[in-house]
Structures are given as C-alpha cells and as structure tokens.
Design goal:
The two termini are about 40 Å apart. The protein is mostly helical. The protein has helices at about 5-20, 25-35, 45-55, 85-95, 105-110, 120-145, 150-180, and strands at about 20, 60, 80.
C-alpha cells in the first residue's frame, strides 16, 4: 500500500477498534485524528478504502446495504466493525517503526494511536521523527544562505526554523519522558509542536538520540 493508504488504514482500523461506526461518523473522527492542518479525507477516498478493507476481511458491515426502513423507504446507514483479522492487522501496523512512520501523515496517525503502541516502538518513531526534523532544519539553513535577499523571504525562513525548533524540543521532551517511564505530560490534551513555547534562550538542544539513520548536526546559525 502507499503511505497515505497506510495512514488511512491505521485510522480506520484504530477507530473501529474503539467501537463500530457508520461512514459519516468515521469520516468525522478520521479528520480529528489526522488533525485540522492536514488534507481532509473525502468520501471519494474513504469508501473505496472501506471496500478494500472489507475485501481483505479486516472489517465487516453489521447492517446490509440493501436494508430499507419500512417507514421512510430510505436505506439504513451501514455500520462498519472490526474483525479479528482486522484487529491483528492493526496491531501489526502499529508495531511498525520504519522511516515511513517518521513522515508527516503517518507520524500523526501513529502518534494518535500511541496509547495502543508499545513503549519501544513509540521511542523508535519519536527518535526517527527527530531525525527528519533535524534534516529539515539543515535544509532550511542551506536554503536561507542562498535565499532571495528580501525581508519576506527571511521572515518565511525564520518562521519555518522556529516551528521546526519547537517540534524538536517537543520530541526531545517526549523521548525523555518515555525513557523515564513517565509518558506524556499530564494535561487535558498533548500539545502539538506549533503550540509549544521556545525555551528562554531560544536555543535547541543538540544532544542526539540514536536512530536507524544518520542525520548530521544542527546548524549553529541563529534562527532569525
């Protein structure tokens, strides 16, 4: 499957693992899992994915599509539920921690289901994500050196750099808490990187964690 398809599969199976859902409610909950800043899932994408999951016997319908209400003459909503095979597939997908899980779309979905993921896999994904963020910081630094010499271009690079640095601090904190066995900070919601404040000095820690891919060193340039 393609990476985007893997993310959608995890989202569908993970949500149906909680409870059976009809297509409209499933789409709403997938949008919440993926987050408001990602591309919304259309019914044109969701229903083919549901048919594919049915064909693989990972989900099943609890209400036949031909069922018609005698009072309204309208079809009853199809409710989808997870099968035992689907539950096993979900566990397999959530146990994955390779490079694909470090990218934006898959990382968000895997993170959303970290409660069903073992600690070792969580740490590997968080460390892999850190590798990706460091690589992006390096690319932004290189691009800034050759960028157009105007204030708007500089402002865009500053904004991108600060966003990546905040995510790096957030990931460092999560890895530290995971390694200490404390888990995420006790708060109503776990804040996303864009909501985390920078530290007082505005600097990024450069202590590296071990990942399966080398990522080089952070640029020592100021972020402005």
């Amino acid at each position: 499957m393609a990476r985007g398809s893997d993310a959608l599969t995890i989202a569908v199976l993970g949500l149906l693992d909680d409870c059976p859902l009809h297509g409209y409610e499933l789409r709403k909950r997938i949008d919440l899992v993926i987050g408001p800043l990602r591309r919304r899932i259309s019914f044109g994408s969701l229903y083919p994915a549901l048919r594919s999951l049915e064909a693989q016997q990972w989900i099943t319908q609890s209400t036949p599509t031909s069922a018609v209400s005698p009072l309204t003459g309208r079809r009853s909503r199809v409710v989808y539920q997870l099968t035992d095979a689907g539950r096993e597939q979900l566990r397999s997908l959530l146990a994955s921690s390779g490079p694909a899980t470090w990218e934006d779309e898959q990382f968000d979905v895997h993170f959303a289901f970290f409660g069903s993921t073992d600690a070792t896999t969580r740490i590997r994904i968080l460390e892999g994500r850190r590798t990706r963020v460091v690589e992006r910081l390096e690319r932004v630094g290189a691009a800034r050196a050759s960028a157009r010499p105007d204030s708007w271009s500089a402002e865009l690079h500053r904004h991108t750099t600060e966003s990546l640095e905040r995510e790096l601090l957030w990931l460092d904190e999560l890895v530290e808490r995971e390694r200490s066995g404390r888990g995420p900070a006790p708060s109503p919601t776990t804040s996303r990187p864009s909501q985390r404040p920078a530290d007082a000095a505005g600097q990024v820690r450069t202590t590296r964690t071990t990942t399966s891919e080398p990522s080089g060193q952070l640029s020592s340039e100021p972020s402005s």
